[in-house]
Design brief:
The chain has 13 helices and 23 strands. It has 543 residues and is of the alpha/beta class. The chain is globular and about 80 Å long. The N and C termini lie far apart (52 Å). The model has no long low-confidence stretch (mean pLDDT 95).
């Protein structure tokens, strides 16, 4: 006998068990569905399954179950991405029509979801500490407005607390299996060990509502290609893993690798619909970041220094400064200790990004940290907002990454000590379910002001945009934005000479949000930005 309860909704069902094993389909009239964050309630049923012999109850168990259907709509290759110009009048629809030939879209209960999420790495280098760190880290992900977490292939398989939290808070999980950045053995003995691992993981995780898909590994297809090999020869991801998953969990989508390079892409040298956008790590508005062909971004990041107070917790006073030729900084820059020649100095990379933004590298620790965090924050914000503007040509972004698992210089937006960097606060605003975003100036004279509605309800929006220095109102008004669509609500005159801060505020349904847009090209003046930062911080969702 089965019974279920979710709020005021209940159901019961009885089924005769004729053999020692079997299965049945349980009808649930008008069920409450589980939705990802921003698209509805993450409703979970408490299901009680009882086994009776006559009137005697001889066994019973309870489970928390979310009822939903998840589909991953994807094509083998990516299409070309055309530029989007500011439209001549408002209001006008801004999101792009679904392309049946080239796409990567996650649907939940038949509704396409605009994914805004984070990559997940081990929360501590010593896994005995995981249980005490996990709840706080997960709350940060939910607070930042994420609706998906990608468990990266270099991760550990998290404990049940992680998946229970994601179930309860509407966080979809992209689950890489624990294989990453490596050519693994292909012999039968190793494959047998892998099969046992996948069996254990699949049986434990398959019934979680949050589980969106299985992925065989991280970047191993890319590794095969870099070695002149065909990724289809990887027997782990093409034979062993999918065979186990088909037997134990045939209803979830399986993708062999992230990014996946199927035969169609390999033969034609074509781009894949899901991509990891690392590239040159230069100016964050360079063509690499604005003209990519990704229909889904599985990884993208930008460095930001921890705050000085955090640096003082893992660096000795004599090691704090300068950043150049500093062995202690290099020790905390994720390079192997035996590497004598660093082929990509991440400390220098971080400094270069500051120079790209401000034209020079500060010569004092606090100024350096501030400049680095501003640069990272503007970059991460831009990546998220530009992805939202490309809806549905690009249907999601999973940025790298939320929090460090040890003290270091990295792309994380929260350091090991749970101190948020500036990027965390910018991301919280950029990932609001209803967002107001200024597009880049195209060939014309205007920037489009676009309301991005990533919910299943129409929204009446009142908005205002103004110059941070003069207070001049640049646009204001109201508009109705249909569910799960983007609409241009206004346009702002743009000039090639612009180098200013535009502040944004919008209200809908009794909630108020704030945001900003940094107009113009670098170099920006750090003291001026510091003054602007006080105004940015004072907007709704203040920090």
């Amino acid at each position: 006998r089965f019974s279920g309860i979710c709020g005021e909704h209940t159901f019961e069902y009885a089924w005769p068990l004729e053999f020692t094993a079997g299965g049945c389909t349980i009808p649930i009239p008008a069920p409450r569905l589980w939705w990802p964050k921003g698209y509805g309630a993450a409703d979970l049923y408490t299901i009680t399954a009882s086994l009776y012999r006559g009137d005697e109850r001889i066994a019973e168990r309870q489970d928390r179950v979310g009822l939903r259907v998840i589909d991953i709509l994807r094509t083998p290759t990516a299409g070309e991405m055309s530029e989007r110009e500011a439209l001549p009048s408002s209001p006008a629809r801004w999101d792009r029509p679904f392309d049946p030939v080239h796409h990567f879209v996650i649907q939940v209960n038949g509704a396409p979801v605009m994914v805004k999420g984070t990559n997940w790495v081990p929360v501590d280098a010593f896994h005995s500490r995981d249980a005490e760190r996990l709840p706080r880290a997960l709350r940060l992900a939910a607070d930042a407005g994420c609706n998906m977490i990608r468990c990266w292939g270099g991760n550990v398989y998290e404990n049940d607390l992680f998946y229970d939290f994601c179930d309860a808070n509407g966080l979809l999980v992209w689950q890489d299996l624990a294989f990453a950045c490596c050519a693994y053995p292909q012999d039968d003995a190793f494959r047998a060990v892998v099969a046992v691992e996948i069996e254990a993981v699949a049986e434990r995780l398959r019934n979680h509502a949050c589980l969106a898909l299985w992925c065989g590994d991280n970047e191993n297809d890319m590794l095969y290609l870099s070695e002149g090999l065909d990724p289809a020869q990887n027997r782990l991801t093409r034979e062993t893993i999918p065979q186990v998953l088909h037997r134990l969990d045939p209803h979830h989508v399986y993708i062999p690798s992230s990014p996946h390079h199927p035969p169609e892409a390999v033969r034609g040298g074509r781009a894949t619909p899901e991509q990891h956008l690392w590239g040159p790590r230069g100016y964050y508005k360079s063509s690499f970041y604005t003209r990519h062909s990704a229909h889904f971004i599985g990884e993208i990041g930008y460095h930001g220094s921890p705050a000085p107070a955090s640096l003082r917790r893992f660096l000795a006073p004599a090691e704090l400064w300068p950043w150049q030729n500093n062995p202690a900084w290099q020790d905390h820059a994720v390079y192997h200790w035996q590497r004598s020649a660093i082929d990509r100095d991440r400390i220098q990379l971080m400094a270069n990004q500051v120079r790209e933004m401000f034209g020079e590298i500060p010569q004092e620790l606090a100024e350096f940290c501030l400049a680095s965090q501003i640069t990272q924050a503007e970059a991460k914000k831009f990546f998220i907002e530009s992805t939202r503007l490309r809806k549905w040509a690009t249907s999601g972004i999973i940025w790298w990454n939320l929090i460090d698992g040890w003290p270091q210089f990295s792309d994380a937006v929260v350091d090991y000590y749970f101190t948020p960097k500036l990027a965390y606060h910018y991301i919280r605003r950029a990932q609001a379910p209803l967002g107001l975003v200024l597009a880049e100036q195209g060939a014309g004279k205007y920037r489009a002001l676009v309301a991005c509605n990533d919910t299943r309800a129409d929204a009446d929006v009142a908005f205002r945009a103004w110059d941070a220095d003069s207070g001049e109102i640049l646009a204001q008004g109201s508009a109705r934005v249909p569910a799960n669509e983007n609409w241009q609500v206004a346009r702002l005159r743009a000039f090639a000479s612009d180098r200013r801060l535009i502040l944004l505020q919008w209200e809908s349904g009794g909630e108020t949000w704030g945001g900003h847009y940094l107009a113009g090209s670098p170099p920006f003046d750090l003291p001026v930005y510091r003054r602007w930062l006080a105004q940015i911080a004072a907007l709704p969702a203040a920090f």
